[in-house]
Amino acid sequence: MKRYRFGLVFALWGMLLYGAIDAMRSATGPMLQAQIHITYTQLGTLFAANSIGYLLGSFPSGFVIHRVGLKRTLFIGSIALGAVLILIAFPTAFLMLWVAFFSLGFVMGWLEIAINAVVPAVAQTPRAESSGFNLLHGFYGVGATLFPTIVTYLATKSGHWSTPFLDVGVLTILAALSIVQYRFPNLAGPDRKQSGVTSAKRQQALTAPLFYALLLGIMLYVLAEVGTATWLPTYLVHAEGMSLTASSWYLTAFYLTFTIGRLTGPLWVHKLGSYASILWSSVFSLVFFGAGLVVPQCPILFVVSGFGFAVTFPTIVHLASQAFPGETGRVIGMLLTFSGIGSIFVNWLVGFLATKVGINVAFWLIPSSLLLVFVSTLAARWLDRTPLTSAREASL
């Protein structure tokens, strides 16, 4: 673990950066819409372009990592990410913006597989891996918590929505140069010898109904999380008449509770169990988010719901990683590919529904997705009845 400490530190930095970029895209949405003069549907199309790029970038990345290694994937991806963030600041025509958002998504999808793969590569036990995933994705929340107000300040002070993208792009390239002098682990993951899983059994696992239940669960969860992260400021500005600054503070507060949930996840997820943690988290976020829509005078309810969003994503990734040892890169690649599908769907659908029936109605897509996460998790728990699963859960 100590030998590859920088690898884990860089992964944490990378996930913090992802939270910052997602918050940046969301917080600048209303200003982008006003300055480029586009509709909800067109704004949703830009967000969907980002998700389509993410989907196409994430799918091959897991296979490439196994061939070229983590270090090369992280270095090339980081340099490309910084370059795209800089370039996205210049287009003004809608078509060029679509291409820029697509390119940003492609690079982010490519790079995130490698960032996630660092955790099982350095973890020594299943419990350490579970804690590592929650810590890693907790840093996503740190970035998403800190950046909305910073982004709003930079954008309003400069007078243009794209200024934060330029600044973060330069910072990303500078950080990427530090990779050259450090060693990174191979993608072998934690000690898999105790699992007793043969290559043939792994192939059977990849076609198991359990895996597809987990894929469905993560897709539905991402639909809810991305829908909230991307559209909450726009919802608060247009449905509840908030200022852009106030809406960015609510997004910051949402990510604060979200981050608290992820950083404290290692303290309670293994006590409740992986499936129970997802089920209770889904109910929690469903109740509070739905209440926020029913009682619009209390937007603080959206903030509270963030705690329930916290552990679902990393816990699903952990379950799949443990279920299919030795195939970590490919498994994570498929999981994040399906999460990209959910992101594409929600970004387009919320924008479309908001244009047709109003954003108040469109936002009900979020609690509906959370309900379906609960159902798919129940299905996955029912399917997950193998002796290997019982041994895994006992070790957590």
Automatic annotation (TrEMBL):
SUPFAM superfamilies: MFS general substrate transporter
Domain of life: Bacteria
Secretion signal span: none
Domain Major facilitator superfamily (MFS) profile: 1-385
Location in the cell: Cell membrane
UniProt cross-references to InterPro entries, sorted A to Z: MFS, MFS_dom, MFS_trans_sf, MFS_Transporter
Predominant cellular place of this UniProt entry's protein: membrane
Matching PROSITE patterns: MFS
Keywords tagged on the record: Membrane, Transmembrane, Transmembrane helix, Transport
Keyword Transcription regulation part of the UniProt annotation: no
Transmembrane segments: 44-65, 74-94, 100-123, 135-155, 161-184, 205-224, 275-294, 300-320, 332-355, 361-383
Annotated membrane topology: Multi-pass membrane protein
Protein family membership: Belongs to the major facilitator superfamily.
Name by which UniProt lists this protein: MFS transporter
Organism: Alicyclobacillus fastidiosus
